[in-house]
Amino acid sequence: MKKIGILCATHREFSPYVPTIQNGNVEEYAMHSFYMGKIAGIEVVAVYSGCGKINASITAQILIDRYQVDAIIFSGIAGGMKEEIKVFDTVVCTASVFHDTNHEIYTDFPILDEPVFYADESLISLAQKTAERINRQIHFGIATTGDRFVEPIHPEALCIDMETAAVAHACYLSQVPFLAIRSISDNTIEAGQEAINRNYDQAVHQSYQFVCELLREM
Prior knowledge:
The protein has 218 residues and is an alpha/beta fold. It has six helices and ten strands; from the N terminus they run E-H-E-E-E-H-E-E-H-E-H-E-E-H-E-H. Helices cover 33% and strands 33% of the residues. A five-stranded mixed β-barrel has the order 5-9-8-6-10, surrounded by four helices.
């Protein structure tokens, strides 16, 4: 993989990457700022999309079509969905599903055996090697995605967010490898916007740190 797209939802999730990108330049396109350069010797194109499924999928497609990235890594925060998923833990999203839409529209065309978007196996393998080097809690499992918090939630989902499955869907259609790294800002114990605000920046840093270590593993 020669060129990696790094995608975040918000400026706060994205901002740690900006000073890390070496020999970089910025291109303005479609109301986005695309930062191009290298992290850990790997060529990257980094951008934030804005929150939500539509923003994320549009930006992912621009990374694929205009910047011709070989893979996309999503970096950001999420809500924890299981008791064992603690605030500031990191989830490597091995698969993702939508929870706020009719699954039949995603299995009709293009035909899918199930409405699940699986992460790239080689990127998962790199993430597993990265996790072995990091002295904190890293989980591997399913993310559930939607613009609204509604049922049904996938019973095995470890975290919930607003972008992962949408970016995974765009990557699936273009046959571009994808992986999402989500660190937990809130859960059933620390719930609500106040908890998210309090934990936001540290959770962002945990995701950023893991992605940088993943790039070093490449």
